[in-house]
Amino acid sequence: MATLPAEPQFCLPIVSSGLLRVTKEEWTSPADHFERLCDKALEVILAATATGSSSFREQQKRSILLFDCLLRVLDEPPISSPIAFSTTHFQSLQTLFYGALGSPKFIDNAETTRIAWAYCFYTTLRCLNESQPVLLADYRQKAAAPIPVDFVRAFLAAKLNEAEVRKLRPYLLRKH
Predict the structure, then answer these.
(1) Other residues' Cβ atoms within 10 Å of the Cβ of residue 65
(2) In 3D, which of 2, 9, 1 has the Cα closest to residue 104?
(3) pTM of the shown model
(4) How many CB atoms lie within 10 A of CB 18?
């Protein structure tokens, strides 16, 4: 099995997990938390989280918020129309997102949590595809399957917008 090069010991993740602490009340105005998914595109993808247990729906929403974070650090333009979900570019963004979730460089949560978010994202898109055309990635994330190393490598090789990374990165507090 292929392995990844070791991450630098003190490398901060790109996304602060504090960003994901969105209360139930705050989800009533989700546009406040998203920068790249917006308008009708944001509305329909969030509507695709309407089924399942409340905890699963919350995980789905967190996965969509993390996808928005990926779009920011990749310096992608805003996605405002659901038509964008049926493009090959969106399909490739899904694969990069799975790769991002496979790396603690993106968000430093337990691997099982990151895999769960990948699965939630996949199930959200699958549900969305029932009402809106979505060009799904060829890869189908399973609930407990590791994220392919090749996807992680592709994410690690992607050019990132450092200004956006700085906005999302957690602060390192040092004691003097």
Answers:
(1) 19
(2) 9
(3) 0.89
(4) 8
